[in-house]
Specification:
The structure is a homodimer. In chain A, 64% of the residues lie in helices and 0% in strands. Chain A is mainly alpha-helical. Chain B binds a DNA duplex through helix 2 and helix 3.
Chain lengths: 221, 221
DNA sequence: ACTCTAATCGAACGATCGTTCGTACGTCAA
DNA sequence: TTGACGTACGAACGATCGTTCGATTAGAGT
């Protein structure tokens, strides 16, 4: 990213766009870049020096905004969650509850993945894969994100049952797993192959997916 | 890890247990540790100093085996592929072609994931997620692995059609995608939740999966 | 006994990491 | 005007990174 040169001369007037970008707006600019780097190369590869260079400020100046790398990582996840919520969850809730909302959820998620295809695709799939074996606050934050994603999908499916769009005895937990696995796998395969036909396949899978029944025959074994 | 000094010769016990673990066996020992680190923390977190400490040799001595970090990464992927082949692919081919082989493939894969649960689960899912946005020999090697995994599954499904276990007009490519997405998503969710019930859900999904038909209605849109 | 080679070592290099410290500039309240 | 505060800076720290170099072994081949 091109950024105004540091203007090393001490007496030069600072009419640059920076220098008056106080507080919150600088922080937002930092996190915009942090999301990109973290999604593409991982939350560990998100180094403070690299991030500072990218947004055109000093390591120390950037560091002061967060106090530690761990805080920066968590702030980055929070920021990514805001994006996910505004690009996937909120547009989904704008559709009528039930089957339309389920289809909308998948479409908005796929649009989200494609929109960020060059930045690592789904932020939370990448973060989950990176931190699933670790411990500490960062992993906990990642875990919470996935849990919230699952809970949202559970609610959508529950509404679909209540609206009569799915059979009354639908096993919502099982169906939620199937859809989570489907979209997660779709994201991973799309990131690797970069072939939009994968989304067509996923849509077709959802259309043909038989609603699993509660306490049917699948309980044993 | 036990060194198991070969001590093939009648010579007196060497001062250090190492020193006679020549060539291939040292290399194998290095790659055993490298697979663990790379699967758990990522191929980039696989640092030479850390790896050298883990196997009890010097950075320079270990480095000499590979010549560059990139070569080490590729050798680690090759080693992980050998494990995947011997633990998943070869046991699968021991089952009769067709539907039994398809079920065996999934079971052997799940056993593989569980066996390496503490080491990051499926090596190739983790590697794909880490390198899907990069370029270079390492990404190419990861890509090749996933392509071979898909091709193997394609063959299993093709055999199942030929054996009459799946309808003649089964869309093998579509079904292969659905199963790849299913097992990939299953691995990711299991790594995060560490709940073996997830495998039960995945088995149930496969049992209930309707074989997609070729040139049905999914082509449009 | 001699040489040759493979394997391994310690030491060091430049780079980058996360972090700390002291300082300077700007704005705003007193 | 003064002082406090928020913001950002340069410099430096110890640690670790990948890599290079030269020296030191042990064993094989002659």
């Amino acid at each position: 990213m091109k950024r105004t040169p540091p203007a090393k001369t001490s007496k030069a007037p600072p009419p640059t766009d920076r220098r008056r970008a106080h507080g919150a707006s600088t922080r937002r600019e930092i996190l915009d870049a942090a999301r990109r780097i973290a999604a593409a190369d991982g939350l560990e590869a998100l180094s403070i020096g690299r991030l500072a260079t990218e947004v055109g400020m000093s390591k120390a100046g950037l560091f002061a905004h967060f106090g530690s790398k761990e805080s920066l990582q968590i702030a980055t996840i929070d920021s990514a969650w805001d994006v996910y919520r505004s690009e996937v969850l909120e547009p989904t809730t704008a559709s009528p509850p039930g089957a339309p909302q389920l289809r909308a959820y998948m479409e908005h998620y796929f649009e989200y993945v494609q929109r960020h295809a060059m930045d690592g695709g789904c932020f939370f799939t990448a973060a989950s894969s990176e931190f699933d074996d670790r411990t500490g606050p960062v992993r906990d934050r990642v875990f919470k994100s996935t849990a919230e994603r699952s809970a949202f999908l559970d609610n959508v499916l529950h509404d679909a049952v209540a609206a009569g769009h799915l059979p009354k005895n639908t096993d919502v937990a099982q169906m939620s797993f199937e859809i989570m696995a489907l979209v997660t796998g779709t994201n991973l395969l799309f990131q690797l192959y970069k072939d939009p036909q994968i989304f067509q396949r996923a849509r077709r899978t959802l259309r043909a997916m038989p609603p699993p029944k509660r306490s049917s025959k699948g309980a044993a074994d």
